[in-house]
Amino acid sequence: MYASWHGIIVKEFFSIGALKLSLEYDPGEHDVSIEKALWSFSGGPFEYPDISFRIDTTAPLTLPDGYRKIFTSSPDGLWTIFEDTAASHYLISLRNIERDVTPYRLIKADREFREFLVCAGPGGRRPISPLEYPLAELAVSGHLNINKTGIILHSACISWRGKGFLFSGVSGSGKSTISEIWLKEGEAEVLTDERVVIRDFNSELWAFGTPWHGTAEIHKNRGIPIENIFFIGHGRENRISRISTMDAANRLAVRCFPTFWHRQGTEFAIDYCSRMARARNCYDFRFVPDQSAAGFLKEWNDGKVKRPGPETN
Hints:
alpha+beta
């Protein structure tokens, strides 16, 4: 979808995980493309965003002198983050290692991950996708960790009977599968099949849907207080077992997105996972990938299936 206004500065507004995001650009200079999933998180307007983005197509896409590399997601990832010698800001380089000799995008970010200048390189009115993967997710995740307000977690999330149930897992564990099962069940709203924002909200621990969906392509701009956390995997039968707080904290830590390049942010993310594990009951859930999984969980929730006692820490 493209902006078509001319002669004025346009601001687009979004809300992800109760964070306010803004994108500012001159439509007379830029054709801007916003991903469909992100449009469903549009909101505002608001005067004071938590995270703001501006577009620049004048600066060259070359890394200036005087920067040191502090983290890279290569070889499988797309981004590398640098720090200037004065430690006043960061520079994020987006580059496909196999395809690109130079970055296709450079982003200047302040130390709190609140303000981003997206440099798309000189080149006229070609379509620009300033918030395309991985930038928006990287910005939100870094902002949450650095400002010590929450984390992003690999997890599906459903809202059922006014309560939030997380189904967390690594790639291939069944997050999209169990999301589609709950969609067919019809009694729950699926907020996401892949990634959730977890943060304190209204004095409770909440989960929020995000635009960064999995294969089921489910993305709802809604939040819900968390009731239970399930670590999922396929099984020959539907079975739930309680796990210890320490086990749960470790599983959460390997399923979140900490800022490895920012020591305090990483420490906060790990501590936050431990806090989640202490605050909510956590279970291992092996499920059969059909509708019996939802029926089993509903019976378990209603006390018709014996609940296991807590394990020792």
